[in-house]
Amino acid sequence: MQSKSQIINCYNLTAAKYADNYFHELDHKHLDRILLGYFANENKAKGQILDLGCGPGQTTAFVYALGVHDILGTDISPVMIEKARELNPNIKFETADMLRLQYADEQFGSVIAFYAIVHFTEDELATALTEIYRVLKPTGQFLFSFHIGNQIIHLDTFLNETVSIDFHFFEAETVIQLATSCGFKVVDIIERKPYPEVEYPSDRAYVWLEKE
Question: Molecular function terms in GO for this entry (predicted)?
């Protein structure tokens, strides 16, 4: 199992290059834009939106540009948060650990987390889902995405930096079982093929949950 410090180190080292490569990635992902736009519209009047694993803030900025300004972007990497603030000076960002969120019970109206669970084991994912459930208001919704599969990909280099990082893929059925065990109900689930030439060649899942 990789340590939290390994994850932080990876993204501290690669924050600038990551932003260069991925800050405009939504320009090439029409389904992501559709889902984020619809989710933001459905939840904008329910309270603050929390964006977990925001990286340099591309999803946070997309939602903010839709006119949903009550949004908080978070990431475990302090350097990535510095980059997010630099690129999006009008948006609030801060560091946060999805496995131990520093927020009050029922603080947020909704949560998004695009590819933010990729470094979790199954047990850690269960912990993260429990934490997200806790900080959501009653009937609050959670939209997140991940790579479909059952493999773990280990990298010793990422964006030309020396790291030690694992990427976990999940079967959709496993994620749904964990989510419903926490108390979530499933609003929708969508799977898609990767976009050629702009994404890693893995199938993707988008899961939309609601706190019961």
Answer: methyltransferase activity
pTM assigned to the model: 0.97
SS3 letters for 106-152?
Answer: CCEEEEEEECCCCCCCHHHHHHHHHHHHHHEEEEEEEEEEEEECCCE
Whether the CB-CB separation of 80 and 141 falls below 8 Å is answered with: no
Judge whether 147 and 203 are in contact, CB under 8 Å.
Answer: yes
Q: Give the N- to C-terminal CA distance of the chain in Å, as an integer.
A: 32
Counted domains in the chain: 1
> Domain holding 123: CATH number?
3.40.50.150
Per-residue burial over 144-175, b = 16 or more CB atoms within 10 Å of its CB, e = otherwise: bbbbeeeeeeeeeebbebebebbbbbbebeeb
Q: What is the pLDDT of residues 165-203, one digit of tens each?
A: 999 999 999 999 999 999 999 999 999 999 998 999 999
Chain centroid to CA 20: 18
Round to whole Å and give the CA distance between 203 and 147: 6
pLDDT over threshold 80, residue 1: no
The residues, any chain, with a CB within 8 Å of residue 83's CB and separated by 6 or more, are 15, 16, 18, 19, 56, 57
DSSP state at residue 170? B
Name 8's Cβ contacts closer than 8 Å, sequence gap at least 6.
76, 77, 78
| Residues spanned by the domain of 204 | 4-211
Q: Is the pLDDT of residue 137 over 80?
A: yes
